[in-house]
Every structure is written in C-alpha cells, then in structure tokens.
Amino acid sequence: MEAKKKWDLISVASIPLIMTLGNSMLIPILPLIREKLHVTSFQVSLLITVYSIAAIILIPVAGFLSDRYGRKIVIIPSLIIAGIGGAVCGIAAWFMPNPYMTILLGRLLQGIGAAGAAPVAMPLVGDMFVKESDVSSGLGIIETANTGGKVLSPILGSALAALVWFLPFMAIPVFSLTSVLMVLFLVKKPQKSGNKVAGPDQNRSKAVSKAADKNGKPQANSPKESGNTDGTPISLPVFLKDLKWIFSRKGRWLYAIFAIGCICMFLLFGVLFYLSELLEEKYNLHGILKGFVLAIPLTLLCLTSFITGKIIGQHKKRMKWLTFIGSLLSLGATLGCLPFNSLYGLLTMLSLLGIGIGLALPCLDAFITAGIDKAQRGTISSFYSSMRFIGVAVGPPAVSVLLSRYPTILFYVLGAACLLAAILALFAIHPSTDEEPRAKPEPSPA
C-alpha cells in the first residue's frame, strides 16, 4: 500500500468507526434509557429504528450526490449533522423534563448524518488508490474499523453510561468533530486523471468498449450515450440511464452481493441481540462484563476482516471462494449452536460465525469497488450499504419474534439464511479472470 496514503486511510476509517459507535453504543444501555425516560420498551426501541430508517432511505441519495459533487463535499456536512444530532439528544436528556420526543428527533438527525458519511467512505477508498490490491487492503481496514466500532460499542457505551446515563449521547459530537478535522485536513483530493491513473472518463470509455458488439457498434443504452467527457457532473436523467445500463449488464452479481451483505448483517445483529438477552436472563451478566462477553465474537470478526482484506489483493476468484467458505462456516456455526447448553460452547460457535462473516464482508466490498466505474461507484456502494442497514434493522426484531414464539427453530432459520448466502456466492458470482489491474481494459469482475 502507498505509504503516503497512510493518514488518509486512517482518517477515512474513522468515519465508519464513529458512525458505528454512535448507534451501537446504545444497544447495551437501552433498558437504562427506558428507565430514565419512563417510556415503554417499544418506545425506546424507536431510538434505534428511527436512526436505521433514515439511513436506509437517504444512503442512495448520498451516494448519488457523492458521485456528482465529490466524496468530501458529502462526508463533512454529514458528520456535522450526526454530531448535531448527538448534541440534541444529550442536551435534551440533561435539561428537559420530558426529553423523549426531542431525543427521537436528535436520533433522526444522527441517522441522516450516518447516511451521508459511512457509506461514502467505501467508494472514497476506491478513488484513493491506483492498484486494486491497495483498494482491497484499504477496504479491509474500513471493514475492520466498522467492526471495531461494534467491538468497542458495548464496552464503551456501558462504561460511559455508568458515569452519567446520557453521556453516550454527548460523546457523539466529540467523535464527529474529530473525524471532521481528520477528513478535512488529512484526506487529499483523489487524482482524477493522468498517464497511469484511469479516471472516470477513461473508465466510462472502457465500459463503452466492452459494450460494443461484434461489429464495433455500441450497444443501446450504454454509457456512451451519456457523453460528458468534459469532467462536469452528469445530469440526473443521464445518470439514471447509466445506472439502468449497469444493472442490466451486471445485475446478477450485484444483486447477489447486495443479498449476501444483507444476510451477513441480519446474522450479526440478530445473534448479538440473542446473546445479549441470553447473558442477562440466563447468566445474569450486566454492564461492562456483559459488554466484554459480547465483544468476543466481534473481536474475531474484526481480526478476520483485517486479515482477509490483506490477502485477497486483486484475486477475484479468491474473493468468491472466501465468500463461499465464510457462508459455509457461518452455516456450520449456526447449526452447531443447537446441541450446546453451556455458555462456552455457544460462544465458540458464535465466534466461528464471526469469523465466517469476517471472511465475506471485505470480499463483498472489494467486488463493488472493483466492478463499478468511479462515476457510479458511490451510488452502487450506497445501495449495498442500504441493504446492509436493512439486515441491521431486521435482525433483532426477527430474532425477538422467533425467541418468543418459535424458539426451537431460531438457529434453523439463521442456518437457512447462511445456506442462501452460500448458494448465491457459488452460482451468481463468476469472476472472469483472477487478476484485473485497473489500468487495463475492464472485464466483468463477477
């Protein structure tokens, strides 16, 4: 990896780390918040739901804006909005006698900020580097930062709330301001073109050349119809036409990656919810100790993501098979939970699940950035991020319903989701070559 990009990458990695902390820190302290605000369990759950829904809806919009106007132009205001949302929550909890609705509004602002910050970090890494191996390694670090936030969240949230119950809200503006300063001053504007770097227009030209039929004529609706080689932002109708062309040509593997990403987050947050409930109800673990136990499978997920990002390089076939292996390992881990009644056995299986998810996520990120031109990369990766947020939103309530009504089939349902991910990885993702340097003509990555 380019040594001069070290601080750029650290700064970009701070974005998903901080956005993850901003949401996941609340999960272990929701019962305490419910008690302090004198609200119901359903009402306190809306603090997570409102954040996620805002992010799901606005992430594709942020992706389009980042493609049209630039990554930093979208990321910096979004981080500021997220910080303001955290401040609104904290000040309301501190000074207002009935702060629930105001805190809900603050969480909505946080979700809006998260939509424009964390998902845009992934295409920004794709813009920063020339070599695809550097991109894959960088994405592994981004995924590690994202997962690292999940590791720290239960511990940090419990520790801050032990001091003052609303302190996790007040920490968000501090985290956001730190990330704003790092991105503003340490992340250099990516090079758009040059003798060795394929810029957006060059990438679009390569897509056109691939779209040509045997007679050398471009296919209908290919990006050549957009023109726009002067470097100015394309119009929305032209952009939508290009987007339609991308999905018509690459939809099979894109839809598969979207689905696998959603399944991974569904499994992760569903299992975390299950483990959190189990630790309190069956093993009577609370506070920071509970946070440390929750962090065990997440730590292995984080470490696996980091190593996977380092080893996949430009090898797209390797990405496919690691995704498949990770899905199979997750399947074995979920079904392996069935015979265990001890906490140690269950933690072992859930740790294997974390490793399986850690194998898949960096590969999915790398497929998105390697397979989509810069001009549309932000939007496509944002669709992918939205699908992951859907998994986050659906996992805990789905597991809650299964635990209350059909507890015996919980792990069979989770196993079925893993099996679906493995089938999609095996049959829907077909890399045409093992290595595809970005400077060469761009064949389909999957």
Layout of secondary structure:
Blueprint: H1 6-24, H2 30-37, H3 41-69, H4 71-95, H5 100-128, H6 132-163, H7 167-186, H8 200-211, H9 236-281, H10 287-312, H11 316-336, H12 343-371, H13 374-405, H14 410-427
Helix pairs in contact: 1-5, 1-6, 1-7, 2-3, 3-4, 3-5, 3-13, 4-5, 4-7, 5-6, 5-13, 6-10, 6-12, 9-12, 9-13, 9-14, 10-12, 11-12, 11-14
Supply database-style keywords.
446 residues; Growth Hormone, Chain: A; transport; 0% strand; 14 helices; mainly alpha; MFS_trans_sf; MFS transporter
What does the model show?
The chain has about 450 residues and is mostly helical. It has a single domain, classed as Up-down Bundle (Growth Hormone, Chain: A), CATH 1.20.1250. The protein is about 80% helix and about 0% strand. The chain is built from 14 helices and no strands. It has helices at about 5-25, 30-35, 40-70, 70-95, 100-130, 130-165, 165-185, 200-210, 235-280, 285-310, 315-335, 345-370, 375-405, 410-425. It is globular. The model is unreliable at about 190-230 and about 435-445 (pLDDT under 50).
**CATH homologous superfamily descriptor:** MFS general substrate transporter like domains
Structural class: mainly alpha
Number of separate helices = 14
> Main sheet?
none
As residue ranges, the low-confidence spans are: 192-231, 434-446
| Cα shape | globular
The overall pLDDT average reads: 80
Quaternary form: single chain
GO cellular component, one term: plasma membrane
InterPro entries: MFS, MFS_dom, MFS_Efflux_Transporters, MFS_trans_sf, Sugar_transporter_CS, Tet-R_TetA/multi-R_MdtG-like
GO molecular function: transmembrane transporter activity
Biased composition (Polar residues): 218-229
